[in-house]
C-alpha cells in the first residue's frame, strides 16, 4: 500500500507540473505573438525574460512578508495558481506588446507562490528522504516548463491562443488538486522566515556563499538554455532539412528539456546522496558546460546528432539544481537558513534575466555555432566555487549528511 507521503508527493508533483506550464506558455508561441503584437527587437527578449523577472519580485515580496509562514500553504498555492491562470489566459485578448509583457511579469509573480510553496509542503511531509522527494518535484517543474512544447506538438495546426488556454486550464486543475486533494501534514517544521537584517550574515558565511556562487553559475546557463534551445533546434533542423515537420521540432524540444531534464533531476538526487553534493554539482556542470560548447558544432548537421547532444545537455543542466540549496541549508546557521535559501533563489533567477537577454543579441554577432559558448562561463565558474566548497562539505558536514535539510532548488 502506498503511504500518505508518497501519495502527497504524486499530487503535489502533478500540481507543479500543471501550474509550471504557465512559465513558457508564451515563449513557445513567441513568433506568433511577435507578429500579432508587432514586437520590436528591443522588446523581443523581454517576452521570455518577463516571467523570471516577475518570479524574482514575487519571491522577494512573499518571503519578506512571510506569506508561506503566516498563511495556509495550500491556499497560497491555489490562489497563486488561479491568479497565474487568469493573467496567462487574458493574453488572448491583448494586442499591445507592453501590456502583454506586463501580464507575463504578473504571471511570474504568481508562480513565486507556487513552486516555493510546493517545496515547503513537501519538506513538511518528508522529514526524511527529502532529497529524492525534492528531486522528483524538480523533475515535475522541468516537465511542466516544457509542457507547452508538448501541447504544440499535437496541436500545432490550431491557433496560438489554444496553447495559452490549455496552460491556463492546467493551472486551474493544479489549484483544484492542491486545495481539495492534498492534505496538510500532521507536524509542521520550525519557521525560518526571510529577514533583510540577516542578509549580511548570509554574505559573511563563506561556505554558504561558495554554494551560492555555484548556484548562480548554474542559473546563468539553465533558463537561457531552456528559453533558446527550441529556437536553436528549429534553426538547425531547417538548415539541414528545410522540409522538416514542426512536430519534430516541438517533440525534440519537449524531449530535450522535459524528458531529459526529468530523468536528470531524479538521477541527480539519487547520485548526490552517494557521492556528495559538491561532487555531483561539479560533474553536472562540467558535462553541461561541454555540451553548451559542443552543441554549436552540430548546427545544421544531421538531426540525430544535434538531438543527442541536446538530450545530454538537458539532463545535466538541471540535475544539480536541488543540491545547491541542500548544500546551503547544511552549512547555514538554523537562525537564518530561510533567509539564505531565499537570497539564493532570488539572485539566481535575477541572473537568468541577463543571460536570457544576452543570447539573442549575441546570436546576431556570433551565430548559432558559437553563441551558446557564452553559457559555459556560468558552470565553469560554478565548478571553481564548488571545488572550494567541497572542503567545507568534508570538514563541516563530513559523512553525516542530514537529508532533512535537502530542501529547495
Which terms would index this structure?
409 residues, mainly alpha, globular, disordered C terminus
Please provide a written account of the structure:
The protein has about 400 residues and is mainly α. The chain is built from 17 helices and no strands. The protein has helices spanning about 5-20, 30-35, 40-65, 65-70, 75-90, 95-110, 115-125, 130-155, 160-180, 200-205, 205-240, 245-275, 275-295, 305-315, 320-330, 335-365, 375-395. Helix 11 (about 205-240) packs antiparallel against helix 14, helix 11 (about 205-240) runs antiparallel to helix 15 and helix 13 packs antiparallel against helix 14. The longest helix is centred in the middle third of the chain and has 35 residues, at about 205-240. The two termini are about 30 Å apart. Mean pLDDT is about 85; it is low at about 400-409.
**Class from helix and strand fractions:** mainly alpha
Sheet of most strands: none
Q: How large is the count of helical segments?
A: 17
Principal-axis shape: globular
Order of helices and strands: HHHHHHHHHHHHHHHHH
Distance between the first and last residues' Cα: 30 Å
Radius of gyration: 20 Å
As a percent range, the share of strand residues is under 5%
User: Spans with pLDDT under 50 lasting ≥5 residues?
Assistant: 398-409
Mean pLDDT: 85
Q: Roughly what percent helix?
A: over 70%
Strand count: 0
Amino acid at each position: 500500500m502506498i503511504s500518505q507521503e508518497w501519495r502527497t508527493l504524486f499530487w503535489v508533483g502533478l500540481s507543479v507540473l500543471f501550474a509550471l506550464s504557465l512559465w513558457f506558455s508564451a515563449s513557445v508561441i513567441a513568433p506568433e505573438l511577435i507578429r500579432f503584437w508587432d514586437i520590436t527587437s528591443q522588446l523581443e527578449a523581454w517576452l521570455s525574460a518577463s516571467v523570471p523577472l516577475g518570479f524574482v519580485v514575487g519571491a522577494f515580496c512573499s518571503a519578506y512578508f512571510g506569506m508561506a509562514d503566516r498563511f495556509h500553504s495550500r491556499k497560497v498555492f491555489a490562489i497563486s495558481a488561479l491568479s497565474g491562470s487568469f493573467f496567462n489566459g487574458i493574453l488572448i485578448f491583448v494586442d499591445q506588446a507592453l501590456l502583454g509583457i506586463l501580464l507575463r511579469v504578473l504571471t511570474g509573480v504568481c508562480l513565486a507562490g507556487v513552486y516555493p510553496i510546493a517545496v515547503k509542503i513537501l519538506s513538511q511531509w518528508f522529514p526524511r528522504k527529502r532529497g529524492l522527494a525534492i528531486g522528483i518535484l524538480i523533475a515535475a517543474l522541468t516537465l511542466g516548463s516544457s509542457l507547452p512544447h508538448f501541447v504544440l506538438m499535437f496541436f500545432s495546426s490550431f491557433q496560438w491562443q489554444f496553447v495559452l488556454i490549455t496552460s491556463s486550464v492546467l493551472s486551474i486543475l493544479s489549484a483544484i488538486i492542491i486545495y481539495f486533494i492534498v492534505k496538510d501534514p500532521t507536524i509542521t517544521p520550525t519557521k525560518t522566515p526571510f529577514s533583510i537584517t540577516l542578509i549580511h550574515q548570509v554574505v559573511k558565511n563563506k561556505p554558504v556563499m561558495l554554494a551560492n556562487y555555484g548556484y548562480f553559475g548554474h542559473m546563468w546557463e539553465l533558463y537561457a538554455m531552456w528559453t533558446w534551445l527550441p529556437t536553436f533546434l528549429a534553426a538547425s533542423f531547417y538548415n539541414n532539412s528545410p522540409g522538416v515537420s514542426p512536430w519534430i521540432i516541438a517533440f525534440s524540444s519537449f524531449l530535450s528539456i522535459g524528458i531529459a531534464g526529468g530523468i536528470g533531476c531524479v538521477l541527480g538526487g539519487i547520485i548526490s546522496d552517494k557521492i556528495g553534493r559538491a561532487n555531483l554539482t561539479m560533474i553536472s556542470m562540467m558535462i553541461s558546460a561541454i555540451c553548451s560548447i559542443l552543441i554549436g558544432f552540430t548546427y545544421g548537421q544531421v538531426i540525430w546528432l544535434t538531438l543527442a547532444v541536446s538530450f545530454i545537455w538537458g539532463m545535466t543542466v538541471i540535475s544539480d539544481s536541488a543540491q545547491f540549496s541542500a548544500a546551503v541549508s547544511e552549512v547555514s546557521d538554523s537562525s537564518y537558513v530561510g533567509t539564505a535559501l531565499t537570497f539564493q533563489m532570488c539572485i539566481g533567477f535575477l541572473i537568468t534575466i541577463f543571460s536570457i537577454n544576452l543570447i539573442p543579441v549575441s546570436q546576431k554577432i556570433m551565430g548559432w555555432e558559437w553563441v551558446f559558448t557564452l553559457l559555459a562561463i556560468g558552470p565553469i565558474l560554478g565548478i571553481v566555487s564548488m571545488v572550494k566548497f567541497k572542503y567545507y562539505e568534508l570538514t563541516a558536514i563530513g559523512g553525516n549528511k542530514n537529508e532533512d535539510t535537502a530542501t529547495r532548488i
